[in-house]
Amino acid sequence: MKRVFLFLLTNLAVLVVASIVLRLLGVEGYLTQRGAEVDLRSLLIFCAVFGMTGSVISLLLSKPMAMRMVGAQVIKEPRGASEQWLLETVRQQAQAAGIGTPTVAVYADDTPNAFATGARKNSALVAVSTGLLQRMKKEEVEAVLGHEVSHVANGDMVTLALIQGVVNTFVMFAARVVGGFVDRAVFRSDGDRGPGIGYFVSVIALEIVFGILASTIVMWFSRQREFRADAGGARLAGRENMVGALQRLAAVPGRPLPGALQAFGIQSGQITGWKRLFLSHPPLEERIARLRSA
User: Fold this and answer.
1) In the beta sheet, which residues pair with residue 103?
2) What is the 3-state secondary structure (H, E, C) of the chain?
3) Which end of the chain is more exposed for a tag (fewer CB within 10 A), N or C?
4) What string of pLDDT tens digits covers the 294 residues of the chain?
């Protein structure tokens, strides 16, 4: 949940900053307009390059940013039987999934939670909260770990980055095409002299709006990958243990995330209507039903 939000937030920030820098350098005006007409081919290439770059940067930064956000501490030497069991369980599951053993970290949070992230399958990170270790049974924790290891084995973060890169391309492209129209029709800019200030203001605003709308596509994929990771966790730790872990997550009240982040919370069963489009995780009852029907 946190890794998906951070990925999207970093990605959107990269796009906005890139637009501002390219405007200051005068690069975008040359690439996006020739006289009164927009050079669509150059514009599409331009958007693809910078759209994919933003996505790759987001992927590369996802691991350190997620760790910093939650204050996760990597387990280098186990300090007790619990940490030793944690390391060994992740090692065994990674071996069964055919990937390198991820780095394991723990962070202080009473809410049972965990995440996995990283740009490569063989150098990933699996982090768990202290609440997960303290408030769930060992077999349930094992199932949650299997879920996260499955995310790594499935290459979910890389696939997410590729999808986000394609979405970025069309967000940047559409924002510039519409921004050019607004600049000429509303701000009466003379296209022969290049795009005016109205164009750049419109582009930044449209990138944010289109980026938020396009995130529903990314969130749909995120929800589908949660079902696949649940199935992977069931294979690694047993279906009943995976079902039990999800039931425990539904039963244990978690600390809600602030403001707009609530839609990304792990306990999202109360979200209804259009807000479901922005959920990174399906409601827990849907995930349980999917496992039981498999």
Assistant:
1) 125
2) CHHHHHHHHHHHHHHHHHHHHHHHHCHHHHHHEECCEECHHHHHHHHHHHHHHHHHHHHHHHHHHHHHHHCCEECCCCCCHHHHHHHHHHHHHHHHHCCCCCEEEEECCCCCCEEEECCCHHHCEEEEEHHHHHHCCHHHHHHHHHHHHHHHHCCHHHHHHHHHHHHHHHHHHHHHHHHHHHHHHCCCCCHHHCCCHHHHHHHHHHHHHHHHHHHHHHHHHHHHHHHHHHHHHHHHHCHHHHHHHHHHHHHCCCCCCCHHHHHHCCCCCCCCHHHHHHCCCCCHHHHHHHHHHC
3) C
4) 444 555 556 556 656 666 666 556 555 554 444 444 556 777 777 788 877 887 788 788 878 877 888 888 999 889 889 999 999 999 999 999 999 999 999 989 888 888 888 888 898 999 998 999 999 999 999 999 999 999 999 998 888 888 888 888 888 888 888 887 787 777 665 555 556 777 788 888 888 888 888 888 888 888 898 999 999 999 999 999 999 999 998 887 665 433 333 333 344 445 667 777 878 788 889 999 999 997
- Is 286 within 8 Å of 226 (Cβ atoms)? no
- Give the fold, CATH level 3, of 70-153: Zincin-like (3.30.2010)
Dihedral of the alpha carbons of 274, 266, 264, 253, in degrees to the nearest 10: 90
Question: What's the CA gap between 258 and 243, in Å, rounded?
Answer: 28
Provide the phi-psi class of 61: left if phi over 0, else alpha when psi is between -120 and 50, else beta.
Answer: alpha
Distance in angstroms (rounded) separating the CA atoms of residues 8 and 120: 18
Q: CA 190, CA 131: separation in Å to the nearest integer?
A: 60
Q: Is 148 a catalytic residue?
A: yes
* Strand order across the beta sheet in which 73-74 lies: 73-74, 103-107, 125-129, 114-117
